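Extended Data, panel c. Modelled sequence:
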Amino acid sequence: MLAFVIISSCGNDTGSANGEKTAMSADTTSSVNAGTDSATNMATRKKKGKATAMISNDNNAKASIGQDGIYNKAEKMPEYPGGEAALSDFVEKNTSYPQDAIDQNTEGTVNVSFVIDEKGKVTNPVTTGKLAGHGLDEEAIKIVKQMPAWKPGMVKGKPVKTRLMLPVTFKLADV
């Protein structure tokens, strides 16, 4: 946790022990309380956000197709170009942690469901589950929309539409 203590002197301060204690208490409280004063905004702006993502595949599950004609599990699942490490790197480098989320100390995981079509193109990204709010959901969708083409999923040697779930985790850290 990042906290600022601001000590200032007023022209009408008598310098008494009681006056010093009062000034100190007021300044400490203003830097700790969540409000719109400058001390709080300075402390809030000193946070930096980071996002990470990792797709988990259940390699033991059999190929299955949903009612919409999209595979939930392909014999060979789609692959991000460069693998999991490249995917994580892409998400981290292309995330702009929303200022509203920083100001509100909002962290969380946004689950984004999307489809990799037969050509490897990312389509239909949507959030699923509980919304994180403060712009995090929109940022996660934006990241997925920016992804380059994947190697498509395969069933019986043919490329197929495959649905994936990408949990994007947003964390704040003090700078």
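Residues 17-32 form the longest helix (16 residues). This feature is highlighted in the accompanying rendering.
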